[in-house]
Design goal:
Distance between the termini: 21 Å
Strand order of the largest sheet: 1-2-4-3-5-6-7-8
Number of helices: 6
Largest sheet: 8 strands, mixed
Structural class: alpha/beta
CATH superfamily: Alpha/Beta hydrolase fold, catalytic domain
Order of helices and strands: EEEHEHHEHEEHEEEH
Strand content: 25-35%
Helix content: 25-40%
Number of strands: 10
């Protein structure tokens, strides 16, 4: 299959944002890819292409604005913080993006999932928490903290969380709280924890053990395999 990509500009939150759609032709189940804290980068675009090679349509979405990409931890934190401080705003924008991409000709609007990495993992969990009518979400080494505005709501999308047990940004106490949250929300949820694995385990550029970000080839391979099985299940 030949993967083709095209850019998709859209207006959200008063900004022009730029997604990248990767497809192999025809209306196919869609997988949105939510970016890490730096913004929509080549990493997410490569994931969209890999999704397309599986026979789906991959869409690397953009929350920050066209061409906006952090180049340092301080810049990345500044870009992410407004969304972390206003989770209702984050959820509203994510739901708007889903509505926008549903109209694209490469997408079967009845079969939609979202995956995300780091901050993007939190984003896709918030899509589920907000009650989005999609098939499922997959969080790779995502932040797990729950927002206040979705407490007491049930979750209909299936949830798969792929987690490094030694991730300092999502310690065991957060995992316990997340497990209780998902159970209370009556979600169909799974959590796969990889022993000895830290944050950003899917990113070969992760190379800062002091910060808690370390690539792990084994966890990268295992988590992608778990995602493929999950997508096969939810898309039937």
């Amino acid at each position: 299959m030949t993967v083709k990509t095209r850019n998709l500009d859209y207006e959200i939150g008063g900004k022009t944002c730029e997604a990248v759609i990767a497809s192999v032709g025809g209306a196919r189940p869609a997988v949105l890819i939510a970016h890490a804290w730096a913004g929509r980068s080549d990493f997410e675009v490569d994931k969209a292409k890999a999704i397309a090679k599986l026979g789906y349509t991959g869409i690397a979405i953009d929350l920050y604005g066209k061409g906006v990409l952090g180049t340092s931890a301080d810049e990345n934190q500044a870009l992410m913080t407004p969304f972390m401080e206003d989770r209702a705003m984050l959820q509203a924008r994510l739901l708007q993006i889903i509505d926008i991409v549903k109209t694209r000709p490469e997408i079967d609007a009845t079969k939609i999932a979202a995956i995300g990495f780091c901050f993007g993992g939190l984003c896709v969990l918030d899509i589920a928490r907000a009650g989005a009518d999609i098939n499922g979400v997959v969080s790779f080494h995502g932040l797990l903290s729950a927002p206040e505005n979705t407490r007491g709501k049930n979750i209909s999308a299936k949830v798969l969380t792929l987690h490094g047990w030694n991730d300092p940004m999502a310690p065991p106490a957060h995992v316990d709280a997340f497990s209780k949250e998902m159970t209370d929300a009556k979600a169909d949820w799974q959590l796969h924890a990889y022993g000895g694995v830290m944050h950003s385990f899917t990113n070969p550029a992760a190379d800062d053990p002091g910060f808690g970000t370390v690539y792990n080839a084994g966890a990268d391979r295992r988590s992608w395999a778990a995602m493929k099985d999950f997508l096969s299940e939810i898309f039937g």
